[in-house]
Structures
1.
Amino acid sequence: MDLAFLWFWIIGFFFIGYFVLDGFDFGVGMSLPFLAKDDVGRRQIINTIGPVWDLNETWLIVAGACLFAAFPEWYATLFSGFYLPLLLILLALIARGVSFEYRHQRDGLRWKRSFDTMIVVGSAVPAFLWGVAFANIVQGVPIDADMEFTGSLLTLLNPYGLLGGATTLLLFFVHGVTFVALKTDGPVHEKARRLATRAGVLAVAVAAVFVLWTVSAHFSLPVLALGAVAAVCLIASVLANARDREGRAFAFGAVTIVAAVAMLFFALFPNVMPSSTDPAFNLTIENASSTDYTLTIMSWAALIFVPLVLAYQAWTYWIFRKRVTRARIETAAASAH
C-alpha cells in the first residue's frame, strides 16, 4: 500500500480514538446541569473523568501533528478555511481544562458555579463544532485552483453541516451520560441512566437522518455497511441502558462512534478535502501528501510509539476502573474540612 494512503487511515484511526474518548468527556461535562443538584453530585460526575480527560485529549494533538506532517496541503487548507471554528474549539478546550483544575481551589458557591458553567460550555462547543467541521469536509467546501478556501463561516453553517453538529452533540452527550451511569452510584447513577435513555431516543432520530443523507450522497458498500453498524449499535446502546446494562450500553455507544467516524472517512476517500467549486480542485490523498521519505520516517516512529501510548492508556483506565461513589466524595469533603 502507498504510504500516503496508509497515513490517511492512520489519521482516521487517531480521530476515531479522539472522538470515542474525548467524546464521552464532552458528554460528562454537558451532563452537569442535568444530573447533579449539589456540589457532592457534581464532584462525583467530574471525578469520573478526572484521571483521564487530559490523556484523552492527547489523541487530538497526535492527530493534528500527523495531519501537519503527512498532509501539509490538507492541514494548510483546513486550518485557514476553518480558522474560526477551530479557534472556538481550542478556546473551549482551554476553558474546560482550566475549570477542571480550578473549580476546587475555593469553597465559594459562585466560584464553583462559574467554572461549572465553563465546563458545560467548553464541552458543548467542541462537541457541536467537530460535527460541523467533519460534515463540511466530507460534503466539500469552496476551494480554488491554489488549494485555498474561498468561503466564510456562513459557508460552513449549511443544513448538512448543522445536522452533523447536532449528531455529534447528541452522540457525545448520550455517550457521556452512559459513562456517568457506568461509573457512579446513588442518585447520580439513576438520573444518568434515565437521561441516557431519553436522550438516546432523540440521538437515534437525528443520527438516522444524518446517516441516510451521508449514504445517499456518498454511496458505497463500506459507507452503507458502516452507517448500518452505527445505527444498529446506537439502538442497542439505548436498549441496553434501559435494561440497566451500563457496560454494554457504553460499549455499543463506543462502537457507534467508531462506525460513524469511519463512515465519514470512507465517504471522503480518496479525497481529503473535496472542492465544491470544481472537482478538478479537490485535495486528494496523492496531491496533498508529504514526500515518501517523510512518510517513511513517520511510519517507523508510529510503529514504535503508538503501541506504547495504547498500552499506557489501557493501563490508566484499568487503574481507575472502579466506580466513583457518593460516600467517597462525602468522606473526602469531610476530611478536607
Note: The chain has one domain: 3-194+268-336.
2.
Amino acid sequence: MDTVELLLDEDTEGQVLRVWDHLAARGRPSQRNHTHPTNRPHLTLASVDSLTPSAAQALRTHLDRPDRPAVLDGLVRFSGRTQVLAWYVRPVAELLDLHTAVHETLLAAGCEPSNPLLLPGRWHPHITLGRSRAPAWDLPDEEVFPPDLRGPVHGRFTAARTYDSRTRTTRLLSPA
C-alpha cells in the first residue's frame, strides 16, 4: 500500500512532537515510541494499493507547493482493532479542495483508492498522537496536552510525500 501525505511546517510539527513527548512521559501510548525513521507527524490524504510513477508525477502538479492551512483543534478517538488518539485537523475549504484533487488525480491515473475512509465525503482529517491495541484514552482531553498548549494550533502544511508500506520508505512529492 502507498499513502499520499501532507507534512507540517517546522513550528507546527514541533507542537505535535511536544504532545507526543507529553503522552510518552505520562506512560500513555504515543507516536514518539514508534521509532522507525519515517515516523513523523503527517496528514494522510489517500491510499492506493500501488502508486505508479505516472500517478506520482501527476500528483506533483497539485502537491508541488501544497501550502494549505493546518488548524489543529480538538481530539478525535477512533476505535476498532487499534485504538487511535488524534488531533483533529479542521477541514477548511482549501484543504478539502486539495484532498478532492488528489483523489481525482489518482483515479485519472488508474490508481483506485484502497481505503474508503479516506474518500472525499468520508474523510476525517487528523494527525495521529498515539495508537494502542488496548483501551488507553480514558483521560480527559485537557490532560492530553501540555498545560501551556491549549486551544487551536494554527500552522501550515508545507510539503507532501508518499509512504510505501511494503518497503517502509518515503518519497517527497514536494519540498521538505
Note: The mean pLDDT is 93.
